[in-house]
Amino acid sequence: MAEKRKRRRADSDSDDESVRLPFKNRLKPDAAILSILKTLTEATKSASTSKTLTLSDLDLSSTCREVTDLALSSVQTEIQTLAISLAKSILAGNGFSFSVPSRAATNQLYVPELDRIVLKDKSSIRPYASVSTVRKTTITTRILSLIHQLSLKNIHVTKRDLFYTDVKLFQDQTQSDAVLDDVSCILGCTRSSLNVVAAEKGVVVGRLIFSDNGDMIDCTKMGIGGKAIPPNIDRVGDMQSDALFILLVEKDAAYMRLAEDRFYNRFPCIIVTAKGQPDVATRLFLRKMKMELKLPVLALVDSDPYGLKILSVYGCGSKNMSYDSANLTTPDIKWLGIRPSDLDKYKIPEQCRLAMTEQDIKTGKDLLEEDFVKKNPGWVEELNLMVKTKQKAEIQALSTFGFQYLSEVYLPLKLQQQDWL
Amino acid sequence: MDSGESSEESPAQAKKGKSKTPRKPKASVLKQKSPAEFFAENKNIAGFDNPGKSLYTTVRELVENALDSAESIAELPFVEVTIEEINRTAFNSMIGLIDRERIDEALYGDFETAKAREKRLAKEARFQETQAKNAALGKKVKEPTSGKAIKGRGEASFYRVTCKDNGRGMPHDDIPNMFGRVLSGTKYGLKQTRGKFGLGAKMALIWSKMSTGLPIEISSSMKNQNYTSFCRLDIDIHRNIPHIHLHEKRDDKEHWHGAEIQVVIEGNWTTYRSKILHYMRQMAVITPYAQFMFRFISNTSDKNVSIRFARRTDVMPAVPLETKYHPSAVDLLLIKRLIGETSKLNLLQFLQHEFVNIGKSHAERLIGEMGPDFSSKTPVKSLTSQQIVRIHQLFRQAKFDDPSGDCLSPAGEYNLRLGIIKELNPDMVATYTASAQVFEGHPFIVEAGVSLGGKDVKQGLNIFRFANRIPLLFEQGADVVTRTAMKRINWNSYKINQTQDKIGVFVSIVSTKIPFKGTGKEYIGDDISEIASAVKCCTQLKSKIVKRIQAREQQERKRNLSKYIADATGAIYGILKEASQLHANKKKRLEIKDEDAELLQKVSSRLITKEILSEKLAQHVEQVDYEMAMEYATQSGVREEPREDIYLQSLEPQMNFVDFHSPVFVFRLFQ
Fold this sequence. Notes:
The structure holds two protein chains of two kinds. By secondary structure, chain A is of the alpha/beta class.
């Protein structure tokens, strides 16, 4: 007995590495991987010099609606002009009404040339003197006047602040939030130009230096937690980086692992996460990084339909904010992992995979119908595989091979093999 | 109490013995069990599970008998229920037992050992401490929980339940058998009745015999009868026969007719109080033409309850008719019984007269189909067992028209509506009566009502179920009505918010045979698709509800629109004011048109104020409201809901009053 145990220990000692960390021996030295990454970065830089398309280039500006960043003073003027016209209408005895661009699903369009969702030009009239719209109309005027005050005083508030200015009228925050988006559409400006921000959610760590409201931030010196992404993007400027790529992580747990292992020091990169569904600030920040630093973006998400959905929000925008998709989306995000095909390729044991629920499978099948998936044949293939095997796995499934498998073997190997879609 | 003996002989069998056969084979001795014995042992079948439920079921059975009785002579029911609490001393003196002081305290279940006492005192001290602290901090002081008296097994509570009605009464000589013999009754025919098995009052008696040993007291008088029958009896459980203590005729001084039944039972008012009150309330909903008086009398006067459910209409649903069987609802035994009972001689007449939906020509065709052994002239009493099986088979396979619902007596939309309005006082009611449908040869009618708002109604769905016009209170979750209302109806399409609005759902099913699930008459199963789909007919209410909601919106539109005027104009004026200040101060004429600048100037010179804006907007709202009201009127026409008669309760003539006369009317003030 004792001898047997000893032998087993001896065995496990001898090829400990390969058993505990499969595929580790396939890894080339870091220098080789780095050179692969450099070519990727170069390619991205040269590719992105070509001008990005806009709606007007495609001759769609008449049928599609887009908002732009407006200066504070023009927001102020817009609101004043609107208020004057409303007052005139009231004084003329006609009551008043808003023409609100519709943000319904039927009014959305995926433009393959732009690779993002845009809003079509349908709008609805929101009159005051109608039982069904009177509340919303009143909330709209109230929000307008609040935004006007913000623009006068030149301050930022959060959506929550806005809600608390008149809880009695707004009743719950979803109502004031929805109207806030309507107001952006009415005024034709981005939500950030309204000076209303959401609470901080995203974090960034790695080889990035930028200024936040004038203070220089070095994201390599922010500890393990990283720097919270500022809720209003106008504060951010002077981005500098020696990173080779941006790594977008879906989950906080995987982000923490990579940050603690200082993954960005082994392979120069910037690591970003929004902890689940991305908020506006993180999307704006990612876009800014991509545009200014011209780095490739690689995404590490769960191997389930929701992972892909999150990827799509970064890439083509959410339906809710489609009016501002031009500023919120980051083109050309590569799906690094974890992909359904990885489950077998990296021999992830059965017990770490989860069976997809009915709902998951339905979501997966629905995604297959979405244009942004269809335009990428690789994605379609992966998604088909997922729906066929009916298995999903989280990033944490890799922890079966040790907590650091993700940063020490999986990611380097993926990068070495240029295994992204 | 003799039940000890039976449980001694075979406790296992007594538990198992759910079968209705009175015979119980035993290994050695063949014993027989009387129906009374059977029900005494399995009293949960009839709803006597525990003292509390027994009290509830007793009240319920007596009230339902009273209503049936009054309705059978087309008299507007007046039912008086009194529950009187009897403490142990009073009870003991009733049965002639002397109160004994406890000598050996430790013998009793509620004896407090020294250790427990210590614990309790410590706890009380702690409680007082926190109490004092709270008081010092100015917090609300909790009422000290009155030392919960641990109710030992000996501390049962006893109640005298009295139910008096103005019904038919009972023939003097029948009274003993009507109460002292289980499974004997007057309601066995095929007819929509509240009671069915002839069990209710007898079970109350059996329960009283089991728990208190006191007899039941009945006084009854019929119309045109110059005496009152008084009877005091109990039941011989072993022989299932009445045991009469006293049976006599007394003078009827008030010319009263009806019955008054008094029984003393063990019960539990504390836990079943709300159930009993709910029952009375719902009964009042479904029978608005009845007057109920409910009293609870206890030793401590603050617990007394006295509720009067006034009569709101004198329109009574028609008395349900006794009907004949539908061919698809009979089985072999029933055919044999019908053959035994029939006065018809030949097969043709038998088929034609003992069943519904078989006419003469239809009967002839059926007989032809039965085979060469049968002819119209076949004497019905001479049919062999095989021939009866053949008839039964044909009844199963042949097609018959559905029975009509004529024999049923639904509460009626009018009564249902009234009942709902009376008891819940809702903002809105819609009611609907479906046409009769059939389940296993028994016709049934579903009536439904939906109410919104009202007093004492909780948010969300409040479901009220009635079967043959009796409220069902227990087993709500499994019931077909609950399931339908919760799962199969999309309340959103009614513009009703299922979680926030106060919704009342009333469904009443009447049938010659309600397919109850389980032993008690408590719920109707969800697996009967006929009934499930009939219940869903409540969706017929949709147009009514939507119409009513529209009408309500009409009324409230102006209020709703005006509610936000101040908010909206305030916000707009706020922007204008700031703009005008900017415009004036900075002299930085923003690129605005002249007319806009003019408007801003008017704002700064206070020619345009918030009040003016509000006023203008209010005018606009008024105009829109007027236009929409016109539109609504032209669309829906001036047709309104049919006017309803108001029922004014007649007053007793000897009231004192003062008249205030005016040329147009008289104002009468009652004193």
